[in-house]
């Protein structure tokens, strides 16, 4: 599977334009997704130029290299004036609806083939308080 991964707030904590503190197990999980599960990873970030290179270098020094950076495949040429559009199958981003899950959960979801399945509601919504009528009638 081709997976896009954000950098700031996802691999490291938000400190843009600096590099934030590592988010626990982000790098380890991504390396495992590549080597054990054979997924291809695209670094997908708003960083450009030197700041983009900082992020690529940060990951490389920790043994994580991407299939492509801010593009669908290594040879893709950015089109002038056209917004970037990725055709990946999955995004890992701290701006997901519901935020960024723990990296252990991310790995489990992808490894077990559940990454695109809906999250059960009971895991996302706080328990509802009983209404007046439910309390009154013992429901
Ligand atoms: Mg982010």
Oligomer: single chain
Q: Please provide the count of β strands.
A: 4
- In DSSP terms (H or I, runs of 4 or more residues), the helix count works out at 5
CATH superfamily: HAD superfamily/HAD-like
Shape type: elongated
CATH architecture assignment: 3-Layer(aba) Sandwich
- If you average the pLDDT, what whole number results? 89
Number of domains: 1
Proportion of residues in β-strands: 5-15%
Task: Name the structural class.
Answer: alpha/beta
List the helices and strands in order: EHEHEEHHH
Structure ligands? magnesium ion
Distance, first to last CA = 46 Å
List keywords for this structure.
elongated, binds magnesium ion, Rossmann fold, alpha/beta, 139 residues
Commentary on this structure:
The protein is α/β, with parallel strands linked by helices. It has one domain (2-136): HAD superfamily/HAD-like (Rossmann fold, 3-Layer(aba) Sandwich). Helix content is 29%, strand content 9%. It is built from 5 helices and 4 strands, in the order βαβαββααα. It has a 4-stranded parallel sheet, covered by helices on one side. Strand 1 (2-5), helix 1 (26-35) and strand 2 form a beta-alpha-beta unit. The longest helix is centred in the middle third of the chain and has 13 residues, at 49-61. It is elongated and about 65 Å long. It starts with a strand and ends with a helix. Bound molecules: magnesium ion. The site of magnesium ion has 7 residues, from loops.
